[in-house]
Design a protein that fits this description.
Strand order of the largest sheet: 1-6-5-3
Helix content: 10-25%
Number of helices: 1
Number of strands: 6
Strand content: 25-35%
Distance between the termini: 75 Å
Structural class: alpha+beta
Order of helices and strands: EEEEEEH
Radius of gyration: 20 Å
Length: 107
Amino acid sequence: IVNPLPDTDLGNNPTVICVDPISGTGSQTIDATPTTAGNYSYNWTPINPDGNIATYTITTPGTYSVIVTNLDTSCSFTDTVTAVISSAPESKICRYWKFMCRCAKKN
């Protein structure tokens, strides 16, 4: 019998943590749930503050890895993602004003 590896995918690499322009903070949830149903354990690095569950809410940049193990077959798969922080977005008013200034300079 050949047992398949857990089919998990943490997503895009890098994963971008979007920053709220008011608070300056942000978070992004990554999900290691395999597409094939089963009985799995999750071992995160760094340690997931919410425990060994399928999701991890990241708030700081860095490298995040998970070992997903099918507890019925003992087959494991490791996936890694790097998180980066976005810059805070400009307000629409600023973008509009900059556009108006560029147009005014051309005339």
